[in-house]
Design goal:
This protein is of the alpha/beta class and about 425 residues long. The protein is built from 17 helices and eleven strands. α12 crosses α14. It is elongated and about 75 Å long. Keywords: Lipid metabolism, Methyltransferase, S-adenosyl-L-methionine, Transferase. Pfam families: CMAS. Belongs to the CFA/CMAS family.
């Protein structure tokens, strides 16, 4: 009988209809495939049962998070090879019915079941978000989703993000290794402040304030008064301590508050950095309308948001299964054009759009490097499965930005008054 790796390689290639680009190392120590390629390590038969009972990305994610699957070699190279075979092919339960009509596909599935052993589906890893799909983006469901992602432990985020504690795309004026992540995050915050034309006496609302970095930078460097809101209790506690340590409690207030519950406008400016991805497409117009209402006439909004590529049939858009289950429950990405349209429908005048796609790829690779460099401590601070979630999610996201599968944009919008005076200079890029 052939060894497990050779059998598995043959069955996988039969399923995919193309050569498998990685080396396979199976639980019995056998190996098959290109000797110079990264190895897909199948640690046990349980990995196959996860894939058979949850075909596609979710089954792969569960096997990865549990440690049943691993990569030996360069993770980025392996993910780049696999993305074209699996994620971009969208081989999941939705297409399984038609695939099973192919006799060769059915034969390969039977072979995998025989190789996998007793057909009992393993339980999902404990890191998987479990929640009802009804009532998305209510106040309660949004709090639960934010808690799943952000209440992992501030020490863990310090390890990954570094001293800046900024969890969004940095702005690299000097790429690494000459430029540092801390410099790039400081420059990003400063870029936002300049786009918003912050100055002493201005009142700023920072929506999704995270650990307080934007609020602190704006108050310390530009003399503004800031209200920062978050749904994460752990973020808020951390941010309040930082504000106190900086001696800025008279100018910065951190609240645990939903954006829909902010009633103390108007504000002169609003920053929304990495927040809108959590809002959901059905709620985005409402979100934009709330921010528009909270601004003074002539007030500015800086919306910093990840965007996906548009699809021919937007109704067919499906939230990424791995991201939804393990990273950002209920999060959704929209094309940048849709975001611009919703902002305009809410009453904003969109005045500038700047893509930072390549900047986010650099940022993510820096975060991955920090995680890998202090791996044992990351596991202690979170969990084995959680650390694996973050390593896979950030590395795969870096590749997605590099390959233009997703992007990130800063949109500057103004609540332009009836007079038409936007308050912006004739050449808006003077902030550079």
């Amino acid at each position: 009988m052939a060894d497990a790796a050779s059998r598995l390689k043959g069955l996988v290639e039969q399923l995919l209809g193309t050569p498998f680009p990685l080396r396979i190392r199976a639980w019995d120590g056998s190996q098959a495939g290109p000797p110079d390629a990264p190895a897909l390590v199948v640690r046990n038969r349980r990995a196959l049962r996860r894939l058979l009972f949850k075909p596609g990305e979710l089954g792969l994610a569960r096997a990865w998070v549990a440690g049943d699957l691993d990569i030996d070699g360069d993770l980025y190279t392996a993910l780049d090879h696999l993305s074209g075979l699996i994620w971009e092919r969208d081989e999941d339960a939705r297409s399984l019915g038609s695939a099973l009509r192919d006799p060769r596909f059915r034969s390969a599935v039977r072979g995998l079941f025989a190789l996998a052993g007793p057909p009992l589906p393993p339980p999902a890893p404990e890191e998987e978000a479990r929640r009802p799909r009804r009532g998305l983006h209510t106040r309660r469901s949004d709090r639960r989703a934010i808690s799943h992602h952000y209440d992992v432990g501030n020490d863990f985020y310090e390890l990954v993000l570094g001293p800046s504690m900024v969890y969004s795309c940095a702005y690299w004026q000097t790429p690494p290794p000459e430029g540092t992540l801390e410099e790039a995050q400081r420059d990003k915050l400063d870029l936002v402040c300049r786009k918003l034309a912050l100055r002493p006496g201005v009142r700023l609302l920072d929506v999704g304030c995270g650990w307080g970095s934007m609020a602190i930078h704006a108050a310390r460097e530009y003399g503004v008064n800031v209200v920062g809101i978050t749904l994460s209790q752990e973020q808020a506690a951390y941010a309040r301590k930082r504000v106190a340590d900086e001696g800025l409690t008279d100018r910065v207030e951190i609240r645990v508050q939903d954006y829909r519950d902010v009633r103390d406008g108007p504000y002169d400016a609003i920053s929304s950095i990495g927040m809108a991805e959590h809002v959901g497409s059905e709620r985005y117009l409402q979100y934009a309308s709330v921010l528009h209402r909270l601004l003074v006439p002539g007030g500015r909004l800086l919306n910093h948001q990840i965007a996906r590529r548009p699809q021919r049939d937007e109704k067919s858009y499906q939230v990424d299964a791995f991201i939804d289950a393990y990273v950002f429950p209920d999060g959704e990405l929209s094309p940048v054009g849709t975001t611009v349209t919703d902002l305009e429908r809410a009453g904003f005048e969109v005045r500038d759009l700047e893509s930072l796609r390549e900047h986010y790829a650099l940022t993510l690779r820096e975060w991955v490097a920090r995680l890998e460099a202090d791996w044992d401590r990351a596991v202690v601070l979170s969990s084995y499965g959680r650390a694996r979630v973050w390593r896979l999610y950030m590395a795969a996201s870096a590749l997605a930005f590099e390959r233009n599968r997703i992007g990130v944009n800063q949109i500057l919008a103004v609540k332009t008054p009836e007079s038409g005076d936007s308050g912006l200079p004739l050449r808006t890029r003077t902030w550079h």
